[in-house]
Amino acid sequence: LLQIAAAAGNHNDVAKYGTQVLHIDGMDVDTHRLLGAAYRDSGRLDRAVREYETAAALDPKQLELSLELARCLIAAGRRNEAKARLQDLLKADPQNKPADELLRGLP
Questions:
Q1: CA-based radius of gyration for the chain
Q2: Which of 46, 3, 45, 8 minimizes the C-alpha distance to 21?
Q3: CA distance 101 to 24
Q4: Region 65-91 average pLDDT
């Protein structure tokens, strides 16, 4: 149901089902990612940041999670944190063009 709600863009159901999944398995990276996206898309940036932070901490090899986290941080006005996250991401993957472009766009 979580995947269906996410595919349909139903943010309320993603939050509802995602929370239920995390009560069973709080270490589920994909659920944290889906919740982060749903919260981001519904403008709940602080919650999105928390979910992406958790997902990135659980699976640091998924660099896309750090990129999404940086985007949420920027949208939330937390540019210094975004800059630090992007710099770390580029240390891990110097060829990451989206991260480089995002970092260059920060004041």
A1: 14
A2: 3
A3: 38
A4: 98
